[in-house]
Amino acid sequence: MPLLLEVQHLTKRFGGLTAVGDLSFGVAAGEILGLIGPNGAGKTTVVDLISGVWRATSGSIAFEGEPVGHLLTFRRARSGIARTFQVMKPFRGLTTLDNVAVGALFGRRPARELAGAREIAAECLRVVGLERRASQRANDLGGPDRKRLELAKALATQPKLLLLDEVMAGLNHAEIDEVIAIIRSLRDRGITLIVIEHVMKAIQSLSDRVLVLHHGERIAEGPPAEVLASPEVVEAYLGHRAR
Amino acid sequence: MIRGLPWSVGIVLVALLAGVPWIAPPTLVQFGISTLLVAVLAQAWNIIGGYAGYASFGNSVFYGLGSYGTAVTMVQWNLPFGVGLAVGSAVALGFAVLLGLPVLRLRGHYFAIATLALAQVMAAVVSNLDIAGRNIGLVLPLTRNDALFYELALGLLVLATLCVAWIAHSRFGYGLIAIREDEDAASAIGANATLLKVAAFALAGVLTALAGGIHAYWITFIDPASSFDLSLNVRMIIMAVFGGAGSVFGPIVGAFLLSAISEVLSSEVSSIASLFFGVVIVVAVVLMPRGLADLIRNYRLGWRYFARNVRAHSV
Lengths: 243, 315
Known about the structure:
The structure holds two protein chains of two kinds. By secondary structure, chain A is α/β, with parallel strands linked by helices. Chain A has helices at 43-51, 73-79, 96-105, 114-128, 143-156, 173-188, 200-206, 224-229, 231-238; strands at residues 3-14, 17-28, 32-36, 58-63, 66-67, 81-83, 161-165, 192-196, 209-214, 217-222. Chain A is globular, with a radius of gyration of 18 Å. By secondary structure, chain B is mostly helical. Chain B has helices at 7-23, 26-51, 59-75, 81-103, 109-116, 118-127, 146-168, 171-181, 183-188, 193-219, 224-227, 230-243, 250-268, 270-287, 291-297, 303-313; strands at residues 138-139, 221-222. At the A-B interface, helix 2, helix 3 and helix 5 of A face helix 8 and helix 9 of B.
């Protein structure tokens, strides 16, 4: 299968701190890649680098075979790379529907008119199960609903690659199961996903492949069951076993 | 502000306002001209400050550039008023783009501070230009036709309001609102923040410059200090915010109300006029920080609306 995203020797330094070091990986079209690692491993920085919030110190990012590492954030979004933010960023003054409509007005296939954008937005709200909140102000949504709103906004840009940064954090078991089902349905629509998550149940059931980061470097990669059982990964999460 | 305000109501209102110069006494017409112009300024500020969320203190520079562009064209080059307005707007447009590209990269307070000094810088620049009459200023040809200036000012306010009404329901406007609410999130969904912000700044700049040009020809005399006046910028912000920044009609209502009150007060008891403004600002910021427009949207809450605002802003 052709690679939708190919990252090579990606490095990001903040002053003396290497947040991501010489990281290479690819994501095939239609794949779900789980990106895990302990806090501070550099997962969000990888998403920031792919979506264009940061420029890499060195290394290259290719999307559909074209280099995108030099492009501004909005250009990458228009080429089909969308993301959610771990710290949620709703447009507070707008209704839930209009929040999502902004995604449809810009994004990969921008709607020219507000009415058309709202139609796309309504469909996206249905996908994430937020249609009953459409006319509420984003500011009045609770935490779990804001997570779904993040997802709907990214979805409205009609992405080919969707980067999900901890969309399940703070959700209860029932809500997590719902989000897992939503993510599956996105893949069925042909969207390729990179999923950052601490909820192992979700990683295990969703991912075709898991990439484990630790101190900005890859320490393991492979099928979820295999990777999650490896001693190195357990050690990165829990520390050395006492002898 | 008022959802689904029928166009017919707007047209009737404008027609009524347009009739004022034929029935009202001259002093009232003059008050009307300055009020309409200041409403244009508040409405223009609303585009960059209210919709895009960039609190500009540089709008009085656009006003000054419009005034001087018009004056220099008419006085030094003997060209008609219309050409003067075009020159003033073009200069403001160029200034907005050249200045906006670097300055609009700054966010929040940093943007406000960066634009704060511009008026004084421009006043100093103009004071040293022969073509602009140095620090003495310029005297424009006298035209005693207040009705004409009144209708021009009204026409400009209608134009500015049509622009804002379009913005409120357009892709451009939604992009600006997204930038105001969260610029990183706006970029992440594909909004070209730089282009949108510069376009908003330029549109605000052109409308402000047109008001400056009309004012210069009406008042027939301009000098650097009064053309590049930071306190005028503060006034447009107060009016826009009092009426409701980020709404279509709020800034007009704010400008009309505050102009009328300040006119009445300064003719009766001038000493308390400025005190009144201070009190209005403090009360408005505490009780209705989102302006009259938001108050009207939430009128059902009654006094609880004020209580909610007080609670929301007390720590």
